Amino acid sequence: MSQELVTYIVLGSESRLNGVKLPLSNKYEEYIFSNFDFQSSIEDQLNESITNSKGELIVFLPPSSFPNTAAKEALKKIALIGLSSWGWFEYSLTRKNIIQNIKKVSTLVRSIPDLEQGIYFTKRLYFSVGGIGTFGNSPFTEISKRFYSRIDPQNPLPALIIRTKNLKLD
Q: DSSP 3-state assignment of 143?
C-alpha cells in the first residue's frame, strides 16, 4: 500500500504548463501535470491520471495554483479518515474584481465550484459516481452534480495560492 495520501493534478495543456514548477512530491503528496494533448478526450486522460495516481484523495488544481499549508494539512486529514468526501477551496480575498464577485455569488447559489477554486474528492467517491462525466466550459459542473447525488460537500478549505492571473486550461 502506498504512503501517498493526496494526489494533486494540475490541469492544463502541455504548452500552458510548460513554465509551471511543481512542488516536490513527498511520502504524503504526489504532484502531477494533466498535460492535455487534445488528441484523446480530456475525460479519458483525467480518468487515466486518477486511476494511476497513488493518493487516496485527488485534488484538481488550476494552473499555477497550489494550496497553502493549512489546506494541505486539512487535505491529509481528510485522506486519513478514509470516508468518501469532496469539496473545493474558497476564493482568494486578495484578488477582488467584479468577475470574481459574480463567480462567488454563482458558487454560493449553485454550490458548484469554479475552475479557479479547484476541487478535491476521494478516489472511492470518484469511481462510485462513474468518473468525471463531461469536462466543458465549466469543468466542475458535471462532476459536482454527480458528487451531490451521493453526499454533500465539505466546507470550503482556505483559498489557493495563485501565482498567475491566467487560469485558462490551454
A: helix
Name beta bridge partners: 36: 13
Q: Which residues pair with 6 in a beta bridge?
A: 29, 57
Please state, in angstroms and rounded to a whole number, the distance separating the CA atoms of residues 135 and 139. Answer: 5
> First-to-last CA distance in the chain?
35
Grid coordinates of 100: 470574481
In this structure, are residues 154 and 50 in contact, taking their beta carbons and an 8 Å threshold? no
Nearest-angstrom CA–CA distance, 43 and 31: 19
For residue 54, give the amino acid letter. Answer: K
Distance CA 58, CA 74 (A): 13
* Residues facing 103 on adjacent strands: none
pLDDT tens-digit series, residues 45-103: 899 999 999 999 999 998 888 999 999 999 999 999 989 999 999 877 665 655 555 55
> Which tens digit of pLDDT belongs to each residue from 26-51?
889 999 998 787 767 888 889 999 99
pTM, two decimal places: 0.84
